[in-house]
Structure formats: C-alpha cells, structure tokens
Amino acid sequence: MSLLAATTGLTTGLLGKIALSAWAAAIGVTVAFSAAIYCADRAGTYRRVGRRGPALAFSGAGVAAGVACLGLIAVALITITTK
Fold this sequence. Notes:
Structural class: mainly alpha
Strand content: under 5%
Radius of gyration: 20 Å
Largest sheet: none
Order of helices and strands: HHH
Number of strands: 0
C-alpha cells in the first residue's frame, strides 16, 4: 500500500478532497433531479386546476432543473474521462 501511495502521490489530504468532491457532486445531482420532479408535479397540478401562470413558471423551473442535472452529470463524466 505504501508503494502505491509513494508512486502515485496519493495523500490523505488528496483523498479527503476527492471524497468531499464526490459527496458534493452527489448532493448537487440529487437536489437538481428532485427539483425537476417537484416542479413537474406542481406544474401538472396547476395545469389541472386551470392556473396557467404558475403552471408555466413551474414548467420553466422544471426544465431548468433538468438541464442543470444533465449538465452536472456531463461535467462529471468529462472530468472523469480526461484525468
């Protein structure tokens, strides 16, 4: 184990940064996806009761949250494959 750490430059600080980054990315994707689902549900509810303004606002927010979720995943995949 120490030979691997000596040759690759792995340190406790680096491993801590990697763990913290992975945790933050997981929370970010989870929150973005949850927001997309919540907004889609609210938009459907408002659409059914005939409130077009809030339905449109929630639809836009849901699309933005979905795009953010996909963007976070794309950035993560690009980062993983280039390093």
